[in-house]
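Hello again, I could really use a second opinion on something today. My current little project is about how a certain protein chain folds up. You're getting the sequence in one-letter code plus the fold written as tokens. Here's the protein in full, and shout if anything looks odd to you:
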Amino acid sequence: MCGICGIYNYGSTQPVTREALKAVNDLLIHRGPDAEGFYTAGGVGLAMRRLSIIDLSTGNQPITNEDGSAWIVFNGEIYNFQELRAGLQAKGHVFKTKSDTETILHLYEEKGTEFPKYLRGMFAVAIWDVNRKRLVLARDRIGKKPLYYAVTPHCLAFASELRALLAAPGLPREINPAAIDAYLTLQYIPSPMSVFKGINKLEPASVLVFENGAARCEKYWDLPVGEPKLSGASVGELKERLCAELSEAVKIRLVSEVPLGAFLSGGIDSSIVTALMARQSDAPVKTFSIGFKEEKFSELGYARQVARMYGTKHTEFTVEANMADMLETLARNYGEPYADPSALPSYFVSRETRRHVTVALNGDGGDEAFGGYLRYTAMKAERLISGAPAWLKKAGLRSIRGFPKTAPFDFFWRLEKFLRMSLKENIEGRYLSAMSFFNPEEASGLYSAKFTALLGADRNYAQRYLSGFFARTAGDDLLNRLVYTDMRSYLPECLMTKMDIASMANSLEARSPFLDQKVLEFGFRLPGSVKLKGLGGTKWLLKETFRDMLPPDIYKRGKMGFGVPLGPWFRGELKEYWAGTCLSEKALGRGYFRKEELLRLWDEHQGGRRDHGYKLWALMMLELWHRQFADDFKVG
């Protein structure tokens, strides 16, 4: 596991110096504290920081092939590299190390730019082909490992993180208004865009080939859209297949030459991963959990049940609002605006886990692959009232207008959200209504006239972005259309970003068995009816398959998610911090928002009429990002 970067001065005779590379590479030290490596040759330079996991003695990078005609830097883990290595050796390739990195390079020699199709794992790769003067960048199927890049008239530069890439000379720092708009709606900025014009994220499952002064991007993988579902198989057969696929995915992720453990949230997915690890491990599994002093948001009790059932060596940690001094650290680590508040507990559980192990397995991807989100149930239920006239739904909204929308009256907030969703005309509009922080209508009311004008035709980018995923699956059932959209958007762009940054900021490698390509492909071929039973049976097949391996309370419990008590925090410990940050002269002077609308949100939240915790968090993280990366920015 590493951080990688590089510079290619394709349009000039300017050599790439070690000093220029080191300026970028030094900002990736947290991703790889164990070693650093450099390759420079004229106008090309590659560099990396290494977190040693496999082949501790000979796996340092950059690595070259036998004759020095190709060089590689690589971030990730390839779980089938030994099988690939044996095949390559049979074809005459000579290996100098035992690393998966060198296997990728020889695979490139055999397969060219199609090499990622043969890799099973998580990766961001850069290969410099000396003879072709070709730079190849590639990213894993689901986007576990990030890669930012920028192409200027004279240079291509890339890095694992945006804040590191910004240290490369001559890159633009012009804020992209469409990215800000997308961020406030989605809580993340989707690839290929970044917060800055001219800087992009390589999309998941993509290869970028740069030669002859031009770049081309190609997709090499997708979920099996259009392939027949496994409708003819019995439930017993499906359970047997699922158990086998997930067990293998866990097994291959237990290979490590350094200490290894697991995140244990107390939810279904991490509990299953822990159970499968325990069955395949000789020693007790080391498990790590995080919770909150606010009992409603804490899952520590459930995690303890799993830990007791499997005799794990269990460690717990509690997050409190007085840890707000970490907020600026979060904003700096992510490098661009990022609003998922579970980034905070994810950072802390990664930090505590790293004190004991270097690798941790987790349950990421279970909800997307097997239908676990409550919004899936809500959108399925919406179909039951889709024939009701709009005037009736609007009347329902008016009838609950005066009710508080905070605990203990959460029901009215959920009912309002459901009715507003049902009024949307298309599936992408309903999807956005179900999951957005600021839906497009709310964002429009928030924006200043200047920012609205600056956005122009780029306004509501998020809806156009999502519509392509729904169009791709037009012939599938509702659940699989939602699953596909989440796996192409929310999962890679939000959840994978969160886990990569949270773990690597603490020099911890995170592995996700549910995101194994074979598990994902199998899950997508399941009909929606065995993933979501009726209106309450989320992840039905997954839970039935592993029912006997879970404590009864875990099996029966509903979806909770990695919730954070933002509502009470912004009325308590973080109240003054938010007001001092987001209502400051500097923040208001940026010109994004109407002051009266910010004050309305704030007053409604403080008065207890509504819980705007997630909106307030998004606004705060946006301002904290500006203070670190674009302090002088003003709209217009």
